[in-house]
Design a protein that fits this description.
Blueprint (H helix, E strand, L loop, with lengths): L27 E3 L5 E3 L3 H4 L14 H4 L3 H4 L5 E4 L4 E6 L10 E7 L7 H6 L9 E9 L3 E3 L3 E4 L2 E4 L4
Antiparallel strand pairs: 1-2, 3-4, 4-5, 5-6, 7-8, 8-9
Length: about 160
């Protein structure tokens, strides 16, 4: 007969996994230049918090993730099967009450890879872009599961 040895594990109460929110997965895909990039998903673009009370505006990027806030200093690139688009804050909106954005199509996107972007200013100069929409208000951009709509024109993302 076998002797049952005492377990060294501590017994804890069961965990209710329904209390925890799921962590969205990030899928790595390859862009038109065959470089790794993050696959577009609504969860990666959507604002990540609704906690507006007690916002520390000097440390906002660590407290709350708002896409519109990050577009003040960064640029967002979206790709379809054969095109690349750039969403960037316009410089003209510096003295306006609300930020304005430009939505542009990148000309010859296969030639504009990470090495090119490291050597050139971001957002890209107008010579590399076809500006599709100027002075776009944030409310005029609608985000979908695999598309975005800018001023009632639909742009489908790359399907993987």
């Amino acid at each position: 007969m076998c002797n049952v040895l005492p377990s060294k594990r501590l017994k804890t109460a069961p965990i209710n996994v329904k209390k925890f929110s799921s962590i969205p997965e990030q899928t790595i895909v390859f862009n038109m230049c065959n470089e790794p990039s993050t696959k577009y998903s609504l969860i990666s673009i959507a604002d990540k918090s609704s906690d507006h009370e007690g916002i520390n505006f000097q440390n906002l990027s660590q407290r709350i993730e708002f896409t519109a806030y990050f577009l003040k200093s960064k640029v967002l690139y979206l790709e379809t099967a054969d095109s690349r688009y750039e969403i960037a804050k316009t410089e003209d909106s510096l003295f306006e009450m609300y930020d304005k954005y430009k939505f542009s199509k990148v000309l010859n996107p296969i030639m504009i890879d990470n090495e090119f972007m490291e050597k050139n200013p971001i957002p890209l100069p107008d010579q590399y872009l076809e500006i599709l929409h100027k002075d776009v208000d944030w409310q005029e951009i609608k985000w979908g599961g695999d598309y975005i709509i800018v001023r009632d024109k639909v742009y489908k993302s790359k399907r993987q």
